[in-house]
Amino acid sequence: MRRLLVVPLLLLAGALLPAGVATAHPERNTSFPSIDLKPPAPGAIPKYRSSGPSVVVCKPESRRLLQRIYKGKGPKTRRILKSRLKTLKRCRFRDIQPAVNAAKTGDRVLLMPGVYEEIPSRKIPFGSYQDGSTCGNDYVLTEGFNSAPPPVGPRSNDPPVRPDRNHQVKCPNAKNLIEVVGDPTPEADPINPSLPKCLQKCNLQIEGLGKKPEDVLIKGDRKKSDVLRVDRAWGIYLRNFAVEQSAFNNIDLVEVNGFRISKIVSRYAQDYGVLSFASTNGLYDHVVAYNNGDSGIYPGSTEKGCNVNPNLYGTCGAFAGPAAALGDGNRGCAFYSIEIRDSESYGNTLGYSGTAGNSTYVHDNDFHDNATGLSTDSFAAGHPGMPQECVKWENNRIRSNNNNIFTREHQKFCADTPFGLRPREMVCPQFQTPVGTGIIIAGGNRNLIRENHIYDNHRVGALLFGVPAALRGDYDPTHQTDTSNGNRFLDNIMGADPAGKRVPNGREFIWDEQGSGNCWEGNRMRSGAAHAPSPSALPACPGATVQQVTNLAVLAPMLACSAWDPKNLTNPPACDWFTTPVKPS
Amino acid sequence: MTAARRRALAAAATVAAGLTLILATGCGGGEDAGDGPPPLAWTAPPQVFATKALPDDRVAVGSVRNTTDRPVELNATALRVVDADGKRLRSAGQYAAGFAHGLYGAFQKPDPIPPGELRRLGLLITVAPGQTAPIAISWSLPRGSDKRRPAAVDYGKGRLVLPTAVKAGIG
């Protein structure tokens, strides 16, 4: 539901600092590409290229696979096979990382069919903090390291440190099977890294030359954090391959201005299938993400789509009161930073999540059979772009998100079995989420949820509630009620599939009644009277012009779920999120 | 006073308690209240909820005030609910005004968990004299237990009585 974060010592007083200077990130501190500029950042989604300079990567079996994949006798198939075989003759690399190393800005990296295990990268030690290795000191210390009281909850053997940008530049394959580094400049002060820029390997296109994504499989070793990490390599285009089995993220884009992720299959990650962080000008399309332990698709810490400095605390509109409710048609949300379309995400803990996932335009996707379909939130500390706001989600199918991966037996297996030893298909939830839920907006503002089909989610179609800023580590008194305001649910079809068949949600909507300017209008509620929303009378637009307070009857049961701990408290008292909801009739 | 009005006031009190805590607490540490009278008191009766799915479980939400003249350090791991006979019930809680989850994946938590994270989640806090903090605690009633007998929160340095009246939670 959010990313693992680090809070460096110098940024303890995070609430008083610019929100955009990421106080936390698994790899290092980040900031948005638009620093010192008003968004949108200059840049664009890269265009597909079928010609131009390229490097070719292949496996010994690539020829045989090509002949099998393109075995038809039609003229088009024969033409493609001939072209592929000709390209194969230029193959100089057996692994992707050396091909990336050899590539120059604007090159294409062409991947012939085969399974890429990246054995040379696997042999590079993962390394650890102060282990005496080349990069042993290139870590960001989490605040309190070695001085904290006894921990609460389950422990790993990791100290609270994360590799900084120097680590990623100097030792790219310690934590990543493949890394594309766009900025090789060493950081003099890694706690306050330089502003994002791309100096090399910009506008690369990494493309599989199979017929379908699975023809080119990049297989993680279940030890490296990321299978494919793209760090400041702007303009990257990833196309037509499959990625699996990372210990953290299968695909991880950090501080990237301009990207496209197209025809990608991402599965079996311990955490995220495809993740972008502090990135903008992006497009995900035809992505299929399944069986990932957190979310299949994660556009987190997305640049705000309005004229605020993204690296400072700021919102696209007033966050409370009449201005929030009665602003212009878009309520201050001017444009979208990342578009996600024509994708499918299923079998994950969450189909989509985005902490500080601002200004995403998510449309024509299918989120199904996850524990929860989509979530966007302002929960966690250290994500630049807080508080979350301004998504537009429309024309999606959000259905049947009832996959209970929180059963007692399942959780016990997960707790007893390290990731490396689990069956690859097994999903162990990294965070707690209410099973049977279509959408969660937890501390969001000015989001527009429109014309979706939301059905067969056995708990609730959509859940909206506020999150006090203190819970994301922002203790500024003036920020405490900066969520949830100005959210609109318009013209959704609730409890019926696109063919018009009634398939009810447990409830259509649940709202904690907190905030201002939240409204519901034009939604067709087909689930039936027994599945009415809570509250039963949802406000029409523009919504309340004054701040309303929380209905504790909604909040209290959720509070009980905060205590979830997969090793010590798998089933907290009074938390009903993990009780499989009864199928609505 | 209408039910809605009461609810609004209670919720406002909870938020206010959270804000007070934010303003009143530093980054952990501080002198503890030590021995002496129990340092905490309810600022108003907490509200107790149960959902249809878990009728034998309860969650109480309220705020507490440090009634002493010294800071009091509170560790959520010490929170317990005890029944009228003083028997411990299965329970869990935190000093937080809203739902939150950890920064770290369930199987990737560092050791130790940083104090800033513990504070953010309301697991380890310090309340200045006279100031307040939100609290949420949940518990399971054993089958067959007398639900009319009052239980209490044991927070390690004293106990706070819980009301027996239960409202319907929306789960």
TrEMBL record, chain A:
Keywords: Signal. InterPro entries: PbH1, Pectin_lyas_fold, Pectin_lyase_fold/virulence. Residues 1-24 form the signal peptide. Residues 147-168 are annotated as: Disordered. SMART domains: PbH1 (SM00710). This is Right handed beta helix domain-containing protein.
UniProtKB/TrEMBL annotation, chain B:
It comes from the Bacteria. Residues 1-24 form the signal peptide. Keywords: Signal. The keyword Signal applies. This is Uncharacterized protein. It comes from Paraconexibacter sp. AEG42_29.
